[in-house]
Amino acid sequence: MNLKKTIVLGGLLISSFAMAENAANIAASSSALSELKEISREKKSDKLFYLVDDFSGLATAPGFSFGAPSGLVPGFGTGFMGVAGTSYSDDTDGALAFGGGFGDPIKSVGGAASLSIGSIDPRDGGAFNRGSVNLSLGRTFTAYGLGASVGVSNVDLWHDTHDDKLDPSYYAAVTKLLPNNVAPVIISAGIGSNGYADISKDDIDTTRNEREHKWGEFISGAVYIHPQMSLILDYSSGITTFGTSIVPMPDYPVSIGLAAQDLFKEDKAVDEIKFLGTLSVGFAF
């Protein structure tokens, strides 16, 4: 599992995006490596499901975050789309997002722009009742396996009611890759405002204006126990999430995420562990 070689040869463009403040709007999308698409064509199998020997056999890589922003940003020639949903006893909700990269984070500066739409469940009477734009800007230092980015999420475009209105959340993130031949690791950390503030320390009745000016830390770590599977521990907005991301079909840039969210019932407004599921497509063109 020579992830270091893949970074140097292809230029790492893997990226995870937090799609809006609410857990229902988290869609982890993985963008393909810039040159990996061509490599994978040479290794196509007549089977739909099979196991690869290393990362070079994949059209995309498993995700490494369920909410913490990434210091690694894509560039021009990459696109992504994802859908995410959360479920617990009293509620089920979901959101979708799509976007693409710009610039060149390897040679200069790159980033991504995406559109998030929620909710996508018409049964709650609020289908597509809010939309927002997310922007990121960053640089990837392949020689060090390091990426740094700044960004903003939840720039409000439309909302049905005042309760649906989203306030922008700003962040700065750093991602470090720790390649090895046993179980490569990716760690991301940073700080963010508003939606990234620690809700576990807030009173349930905290006003939007009070939270808008708060900042909080986030961190996520992923260990790749196989090129097609990562285990992820994520701490964002004061909530702990643990789960896995898998790429079931090596020849297709599709990743699936399954996780338990709010493991320690840190969200006082819910006080219940949630189930989180994501489906992401990341591709190079």
UniProtKB/TrEMBL annotation:
Source taxon at top rank: Bacteria
Entry keyword set: Signal
Protein name: Outer membrane protein beta-barrel domain-containing protein
Organism: Psychrilyobacter piezotolerans
Signal sequence, renumbered to the chain: 1-20
